[in-house]
């Protein structure tokens, strides 16, 4: 991100966050106000509807009173009464029509004392009116102040009835008028409330004969019927109050409606004003916050620029704004101190990363960079180049005997001698690590490099003198040349080390790299990578080399050996993979494989009942495995094989690597019933004290002594002494490497117990061992 982008991002975030918070607060306030206005409006409308309902019922009562008064005047009229007494039907009908018309009654009827209809003045369709009169009259009889609604032809009519006395009741006068539009209009004019009469006939059909509503809400009302509290129309929300009217011939409800928007309208202007104030406030707040953020971001820009300079490794530019006394100034001063400290640390890190602290020479990384730079496309020259790698001999012995401080002084002295021998400015002497050094010789071919190596070797002939200690120096040196030996820097360095280690093994002085030096190593490494695959895919084979008893002892014996049947390489000799398996720790898996294969073979029907004992070799890593006993016992239990059927062979060197742990493990193995044998006896450095304490049953004389018995008297003497020593300790003796019958006879004369070697039999596949044994019998 650029400075400008970072600055604007910070300002935008500060202003944006502040505006967002303010907008949230304003929006919440606006919503609360709006909700409060709506709630108060609805509450106000509910109270108004209460009044409207009372007024509506009062209007109906006033109309009923007017009818009662007209009915009472008609009943008290002398002429009407005379006509009633004379039973003049035409006069009665005429009086009913005239009087009803004067007071606005649509229906006028005369009933006898038994509420039977004597005369009726009604609009067309008198049948419906006769039926309605017959329904209403019984309900109004005896209720002088009551009125009743009847649905006639889908229109509600309000009826009242008064008695006609002379002085006793001689009949009843019933009058009714339609509850029609004028009454609803009157309510609208009085209280600005909309009225709608909903009539549901006996057939269930709904009609709205009277309404002050606009066409759209009226159509909605006719379609959906009585609303539940409110009616949502395109013109707004109408709160509704339904008032049920007692009626016959159908149901009649008076629906009173008031608009919420009309009540809220006066407050809308206040809301608009509030919105304008909010927008103006947001603009002013944004401007103020922007100015404040700009003031904060300006000094931060210099800090951001400083961090970018630090990322580029520029530590010499001081920061600005350090003269301020506020928090920004404190931050700038702290950051500047950090800049100074980081600069000092980076200088020290670079020095430690590329230079050896002890000798002051370039280290491995710096040396590699120099080689890479010398071989870079832009820096390559016609002149050749050579790398010489040097490793001091017996340096570990110096550290162990004289101590590490003395070893450090020795390394410093070696560095000084190398500087004396490599004097050209373009060449470089480096310490790669430990007691390993390297020399880069630019413009030197193989002959020149060998000359420098001999000169260095000659300089080491003079011993180093430290106080009262004289130290003789020698070193193995390897040389690799460009372009003949390698094409890149890493390969050149690697092949120089390969030549150096080969020279250390051969004790041949300075040695130049040859491809033959590492071809075997590469092949061995390839085999190691395939070894695990070999175990998993059953490429290993069990071989047995027979042992014979030299003095007719009962029982049969053999040593278990492993062979690798590689699918491409054929039969791989054990010496090509066993030593490296021991170095990597994979020998534990090989030991378990060997032990399991032996147990599986011993459990076969052909071998189960033979008095056979098979020897299996254990390595140093096996002895240091605390779970070895449990693993071997589990395999014995799985195949049903007795521990006495196996002999575990351990070399002297394996025991002496960690005598105490080895002794503890051997005791545990002996307790499990295994027979124990010390292999390659005579080649290690074990003491008789340890030999006496170990729970071993057998000594196995190393083949180097056995094979030399015919030509070297010392070897024969060693074999004799070993046999006598073992017998005196109560141990049996096995001689390996028996190559001739003469050696076999000599061993028999020395009272050796068992022998194995090519004079007896070479190692055989496990399946062929029993065949060989049968032939011997």
UniProtKB/TrEMBL annotation:
<keyword id="KW-0812">Transmembrane</keyword>
<feature type="transmembrane region" description="Helical">
    <location>
        <begin position="272"/>
        <end position="292"/>
    </location>
</feature>
<feature type="domain" description="HAMP">
    <location>
        <begin position="294"/>
        <end position="347"/>
    </location>
</feature>
<keyword id="KW-1133">Transmembrane helix</keyword>
<dbReference type="InterPro" id="IPR043128">
    <property type="entry name" value="Rev_trsase/Diguanyl_cyclase"/>
</dbReference>
<dbReference type="Pfam" id="PF00990">
    <property type="entry name" value="GGDEF"/>
</dbReference>
<dbReference type="InterPro" id="IPR001633">
    <property type="entry name" value="EAL_dom"/>
</dbReference>
<dbReference type="GO" id="GO:0016020">
    <property type="term" value="C:membrane"/>
</dbReference>
<dbReference type="Pfam" id="PF00563">
    <property type="entry name" value="EAL"/>
</dbReference>
<dbReference type="InterPro" id="IPR029150">
    <property type="entry name" value="dCache_3"/>
</dbReference>
<dbReference type="InterPro" id="IPR029787">
    <property type="entry name" value="Nucleotide_cyclase"/>
</dbReference>
<dbReference type="InterPro" id="IPR029151">
    <property type="entry name" value="Sensor-like_sf"/>
</dbReference>
<feature type="domain" description="GGDEF">
    <location>
        <begin position="383"/>
        <end position="518"/>
    </location>
</feature>
<dbReference type="InterPro" id="IPR035919">
    <property type="entry name" value="EAL_sf"/>
</dbReference>
<dbReference type="InterPro" id="IPR000160">
    <property type="entry name" value="GGDEF_dom"/>
</dbReference>
<dbReference type="Pfam" id="PF00672">
    <property type="entry name" value="HAMP"/>
</dbReference>
<feature type="domain" description="EAL">
    <location>
        <begin position="524"/>
        <end position="777"/>
    </location>
</feature>
<dbReference type="Pfam" id="PF14827">
    <property type="entry name" value="dCache_3"/>
</dbReference>
<dbReference type="InterPro" id="IPR003660">
    <property type="entry name" value="HAMP_dom"/>
</dbReference>
<keyword id="KW-0472">Membrane</keyword>
<dbReference type="InterPro" id="IPR052155">
    <property type="entry name" value="Biofilm_reg_signaling"/>
</dbReference>
<protein>
    <submittedName>
        <fullName>Diguanylate cyclase/phosphodiesterase with extracellular sensor</fullName>
    </submittedName>
</protein>
<dbReference type="GO" id="GO:0007165">
    <property type="term" value="P:signal transduction"/>
</dbReference>
